[in-house]
């Protein structure tokens, strides 16, 4: 009778020599292995990061020159036929308030250049995250001031619907970029804290 009850209720039968599974330890081991793997992956990508640092420096220099000396080329372009040749007309869409943004833009780009030069010399994980945080903070400051001043006049564009939609699209895109940058700042701060506490 007792054997029949055990057969009818298999849950009551405990398999012999069944090891106690500690899922917490397994989860900790998985996370530790993942962290070690991430660090190893970071070290193995030194060449790729060096290329990105140089790339960031070059483009930051290009943007500094452009925004300081050629910002009038941010414009609406229209062409017409004149004496059998194509003539382009340029109508700048930026206003006088843009000059107030140029020093902040230049400072932000200069910080990016300095940060990437430092990373080329001292390529450290925590240092890279600190540089990313500083650059993101400057980027947020630039975009926020851009939204406050909004030094662009789309009324020059001879298409009413386009002139009405572009400011809204630009503001929404700027807001999304700020949100992404804030999330990046928080994520990098958490990574730095985790890295420090792990040591």
Walk me through the topology.
Layout: H1 2-8, H2 23-44, H3 46-69, E1 75-82, E2 85-92, H4 98-121, H5 125-149, H6 160-198
Antiparallel strand pairs: 1-2
Helix pairs in contact: 3-4, 4-5, 5-6
Rg to the nearest angstrom?
29 Å
**Fraction of residues in H or I helices:** over 70%
Parts with pLDDT < 50 across at least 5 consecutive residues: 10-15
Shape: elongated
Give a quick account of the main beta sheet: strands, pairing sense, barrel closure: 2 strands, antiparallel
Order of adjacent strands in the largest pleated sheet: 1-2
**How much strand?**
5-15%
Tally the beta strands: 2
> How many structurally independent domains?
1
**Order of H and E elements:** HHHEEHHH
The count of helical stretches stands at: 6
**What integer is the average pLDDT?**
83
What is the terminal-to-terminal distance?
61 Å
Question: How would you classify the helix and strand content by structural class?
Answer: mainly alpha
